[in-house]
Design goal:
heterodimer, A: mainly beta, four-stranded antiparallel β-sheet, globular, B: eight-stranded mixed β-sheet, 20 helices
Chain lengths: 478, 563
């Protein structure tokens, strides 16, 4: 019988492929795990790598003085464990050089590495003189004042590149003094607290391009109110604290519902829930849509040793992190398996999307975030050698931070997990704030010499989309 | 114990075993896909390493298969100018010289060397073995063309091609096996074709297969069996011995190349165990090449290439679509299964079990041309293609029967049982899972590792290694693009440069079509088997434009042959 099995060439070919695979497969897997054979000692060693993604991309790289063939972003693999001198060069930007350590089987991440321009360009936005800039993190406009009165408040519309006056000359409270300004991140509304002939007032300002709509809420809001808050979805519904309970005011209808939650020492909102701390030290949660109370006892222990008597702001960050902040500067960050207490906290910024929190004292900054493989978030203090931190905000997620120390504005860039590098970005007029427009990647501040509004690019606009794509590719964890 | 080749055995023990094996393909496929997802979620680094090992094995297989493909293609091309009738004559002379040494002929012309070398090798073996094949004039062919609802324009070119072929039609009995339930128009068409071609053949019978015969399902195998029984009666009446008869069961749209029956006869005669063999031509889908959309073209071109690969490795070859076999073997095994959809592969397994593993498929270096599945609209084409591929994948229905028989039947060596069982299972498992693993899941480990926020070096090395492996695999696709150009006959390709370029570029669709028309129909078929929802035969949509018919008529009804 003519059998096909007897074809020796095919048989040889088949077994050659089987043997080839049996040899190649383990080698390839070892290679994937980082193992290489050292030509010198002929020993198998496990290597590591460095992932570099610069902003802007396209920077040339060199490792220990030797040029690397690819440009950033790139994963440099098969590096022997140990320290390396990594250098990034990009025309128009300062060279970036740091000592980076590589561990066996691990990749050191240098993600969203912001390169500093050689000549940072500072642009004057308008030839007008401004007294101050009101800090409004997350607010989509820059709020500026030219004096102390309500009529001196203007809003700078960044996409439209124009100034919008908050009130016109006929407004009755135009001569009132502004004592405070309250914003909610993402909302186009803000509240101005005013004093007019010894009487306190509140104005609600809503920006509807190209003009501002102002509503006098003085007669509408309860006589005694503290820490007003609202949601982005329903800005006309303003919640406030009156010393023992939370009231709700509908600015459109002028109706006030008193005591929607009573016997509480603090509260906070997100888009759906109202959180409050009861006098019995329970953390309560109310569904704003269904008007029902939800069981939230799993966080009770977070408030156990929190000093009551002062107003406590409650801020949920994602599903598993709650921030409690009293105006005395005490901050508790608590999760199911995590609690951190800190004092003398001047302010914080929480990113619900990533679950990260940036907080600052006078001399240092800290980040609360969940690290790789950890079951709970951790608080990490940043060694930035500051003296009087007034403001801080994330730039490009948590890899870069802008902060104002006195009148100097700095950019802190994360090198490795616990190392940061600080570079000065600008000097603002003493006592004035800064504003970082995340969508445009621009910093706004008031120039100390001219008193005019200046801007400088922190993240080049064309890179913002790349950054989003890159972050999506790298996963939300970085 | 003899296990009947049927999905409905009477014996309870057999039925239980078959039911168990009916669950295996779907459960294994689901385990592979879901298991990989679980490993991805729990241990993405492990998943990345598994993926690398798998993609590397796929690449090795691809390279190995492409070598076989190239060899089979060269063989096919080497035989394109072969006059098989001349070879048959030479074989007749050879019959008188058994035991002699084959005289080395003068060096053959360039381009004919491979063909001549294979021919000499075959002849030497025959002489050395002292085997005397029967005279060519004693060999008869029976050709069955089952028709359910196909139009005359679909099946008539096939009849014309057989009549016009190089092998004398006077030795061919042609049976148009028409379903009794077919429309009156179809029956009329069959009768008209009978009238037109009757004189050309040894006999041309229109056999109407009655509907609703007890024990039969509405499947092509039942119709073909009915026709084969009619053929047996015809042959017996003329005292023609079944051992010298080759039967071919063609799809209605099959157009055999002019040399097909001569080539088949030659291979039948030189086959030492010709009554224990099937003969598999290379199916090519050229009848409506330029009318079918690219995704349908690439699928059918892919199945042609698959058959060529299998032809290079006949140990694994199983009959597919239009094929031929010894009529004596067919009668011995009890004809085609009458209650199974996938009669083409089922008859191989039925014969394999009946002859205790001493049955094989001989690849033929000749083509039969068929239609690419096509509907009236794009959407209907998609549905038709999907249903056709699901029907092909329904070949999995043979698996439980074969496995049960392997367990209960004695006489087949254990190693053969293990090898064949593994191959059958592996074919259906890879059909259902590989497109998922290669096209979708191979890119997921890096994403899952990222979500775990790990700094593992595998996160970066895995995509890099996979990119390299896939880039190497691109050379395989370049080979397909190149060979698919050579498959298009000169007369079909003339003046159609744009279409020819698209014909090569269509291979870019492979990742998508292999998923949509490969893995998903296969999973569908396996799930049906698991749930006991059996398929019945569904006639694939075939469309021919009038213009093409005219063009074919202008060629004298000759079939398309790859250049």
């Amino acid at each position: 019988m003519k059998t096909v099995r007897s074809c020796p060439v095919r048989k040889f070919l088949f077994f050659a492929f089987v043997v080839g695979y049996a040899v190649a497969c383990p080698l390839l897997i070892l290679y994937a795990l980082g193992y290489i054979v050292q030509p010198s000692g002929e020993e198998l060693r496990r290597t590591g790598g460095i992932f570099v993604a610069s902003i802007p991309p396209g920077a040339s790289l060199s490792l220990d003085g030797k040029p690397y063939p690819s440009k950033s972003p790139v994963a440099m693999l098969q590096l022997r464990p140990g320290p390396y001198r990594l250098r990034l060069d990009l025309h128009g930007y300062r060279s970036w050089e740091e000592r980076v350590s590589v561990g066996p089987g691990r990749v050191t991440l240098l993600d969203s590495l912001l390169l500093v321009p050689v000549h940072r360009t500072y642009a004057e936005v308008a030839p007008d003189w401004f007294l101050d800039m009101i800090p409004a993190p997350g607010y989509p406009y820059v709020i500026l004042t030219k004096g102390t009165g309500v009529r001196d408040v203007v809003v700078y519309d960044i996409p439209g590149s124009r100034f919008i006056s908050v009130i016109d000359g006929r407004f009755t409270l135009r001569n009132a003094l502004v004592t405070g300004c309250l914003t909610v991140g993402g909302s186009a509304d803000f509240l101005l607290e005013t004093v007019n002939r010894a009487s306190l007032g509140t104005l609600r300002v809503r920006i509807q391009r190209p003009r501002a709509m102002v509503q006098n809420l003085t007669e509408v809001l309860p006589a005694q109110f503290e820490d007003p808050q609202w949601t982005v979805g329903s800005p006309e519904v303003i919640f406030s604290y009156n010393g023992s309970s939370v009231d709700r005011t509908n600015a459109r209808t002028g109706t006030v519902t008193r005591g929607i939650v009573t016997q509480v020492s603090g509260y906070g909102l997100d888009e759906r829930w109202l959180y409050a701390i009861s006098w019995q030290r329970h953390l309560l949660r109310f569904d704003l849509e269904k008007q029902t109370r939800q069981d939230f006892s799993r966080f009770d222990w977070a408030v156990e040793d929190f000093p009551l008597g002062r107003f406590v702001s409650v801020r949920p960050v994602g599903a598993d992190l709650i921030l409690l902040w009293s105006k005395g500067g005490r901050l508790t960050a608590a999760g199911p398996a995590f609690r951190e207490n800190a004092t003398a906290i001047r302010g914080y910024q929480a990113d619900s999307h990533t679950g990260r929190v940036l907080l600052w004292q006078a001399r240092r900054l800290a980040i609360i975030e969940q690290h790789a493989g950890a079951s709970a978030p951790a608080l990490q203090w940043l060694d930035v050698d500051a003296k009087d931190v007034q403001q801080a905000c994330f730039v490009t997620e948590s890899t870069n931070i802008l902060y104002r120390d006195g009148n100097s504005i700095f950019l802190a860039s994360r090198l490795q997990d616990r190392e940061w590098r600080v570079s000065m970005v600008a000097t603002a007029r003493l006592g004035t704030s800064m504003y970082y427009a995340e969508r445009e990647g621009k910093l706004y501040y008031i120039d100390p010499e001219t008193g005019r509004l200046f801007t400088t690019v922190i993240v080049p606009r064309q890179q913002i989309l790349d950054l989003i794509v890159q972050q999506l590719r790298q996963g939300s964890g970085h | 114990m003899e296990v009947p080749f049927s999905p409905h055995p009477a014996d309870v023990r057999v039925r239980r075993l078959e039911r168990f094996f009916e669950l295996v393909p779907a459960l294994l496929s689901a385990t592979v896909i879901v298991g990989m997802l679980v490993v991805l979620a729990v241990q993405p680094v492990i998943a990345a390493l598994i993926t690398i090992a798998f993609v590397l094995s796929w690449l090795f297989r691809m390279v190995y298969s492409n070598i076989l493909l190239t060899w089979s293609f060269l063989r096919l091309r080497a035989e394109r100018g072969t006059d098989w009738m001349e070879r048959l004559q030479a074989l007749g002379e050879l019959s008188n010289r058994t035991g002699e040494r084959w005289a080395e002929p003068a060096a053959p012309a360039r381009g004919r060397r491979l063909s001549e070398r294979v021919y000499r090798r075959d002849a030497q073996k025959l002489l050395a073995a002292g085997i005397v094949p029967p005279p060519v004039q004693d060999v008869y062919h029976v050709v069955i063309i089952p028709i359910a609802s196909e139009k005359r324009a679909v099946f008539e070119p096939g009849v014309a091609a057989i009549a016009a072929g190089s092998f004398p039609a006077s030795s061919i009995l042609l049976i148009l096996a028409v379903e009794q339930r077919a429309s009156e128009q179809v029956k009329r068409d069959a009768k008209e074709v009978e009238e037109r071609y009757r004189e050309s053949f040894l006999g041309l019978i229109v056999a109407f297969h009655p509907d609703g015969v007890p024990g039969e399902a509405r499947v092509k195998g039942a119709n073909a069996t009915h026709a084969a029984r009619a053929a047996a009666a015809f042959l017996r009446a003329r005292a023609i011995t079944f051992e010298n008869v080759v039967i071919s069961c063609f799809d209605a749209d099959t157009v055999a190349s002019p040399q097909y029956f001569a080539c088949l006869t030659y291979h039948f005669l030189i086959c030492s165990d010709r009554t224990r063999a099937s003969f598999q031509p290379v199916p090519v889908y050229l009848n409506n090449l330029w009318e079918a959309p690219a995704f349908a073209r690439v699928l059918d071109m892919g199945s042609s290439f698959f058959q060529l690969m299998e032809a290079g490795n006949p140990e694994k070859l199983v009959t597919f679509s239009s094929h031929s076999m010894s009529f004596a073997a067919l009668v011995d095994v009890g004809y085609w299964p009458v209650d199974m959809v996938s009669d083409d592969s089922a008859i191989y397994w039925k014969a394999f079990l009946h002859f205790k593993g001493r049955y094989r498929v001989v690849p033929l270096p000749v083509t039969v041309s068929m239609d690419i599945t096509q509907g009236e609209t794009w959407w209907k084409t998609i549905i038709s293609v999907y249903k056709q591929k699901r029907r092909w994948a329904w070949g999995v229905e043979s698996f439980p029967i074969v496995m049960t028989a392997f367990i209960l039947t004695k006489g087949i060596p254990l190693l053969t049982r293990l090898k064949q069982g593994y191959r059958l299972l592996q074919t259906h498992l890879s059909w259902a899972t590989w497109p998922f693993l290669l096209g979708v899941m191979s890119w997921l480990p890096a994403v899952f590792i990222s979500l775990g926020n790990t700094h593992s070096v595998v996160r970066y090395s895995e995509p890099r290694i996979l990119s390299t492996l896939y880039n190497v695999a691109l050379f395989g696709f370049l080979l397909y693009a190149f060979l698919s150009q050579l498959f298009v006959p000169r007369e079909l390709g003339k003046g159609r440069m744009g279409k020819r370029i698209a014909h090569s570029l269509q291979w870019l669709l492979v990742p998508v079509v292999s998923l949509l028309f490969g893995a998903i129909p296969a999973l569908d078929a396996q799930t049906r088997l698991l749930l006991g929802k059996r398929l019945e035969f569904w006639v694939t949509g075939k469309q021919r434009k009038p213009a093409l018919r005219a063009e074919k008529a202008g060629e004298g009804g000759k079939p398309s042959i790859p250049s």
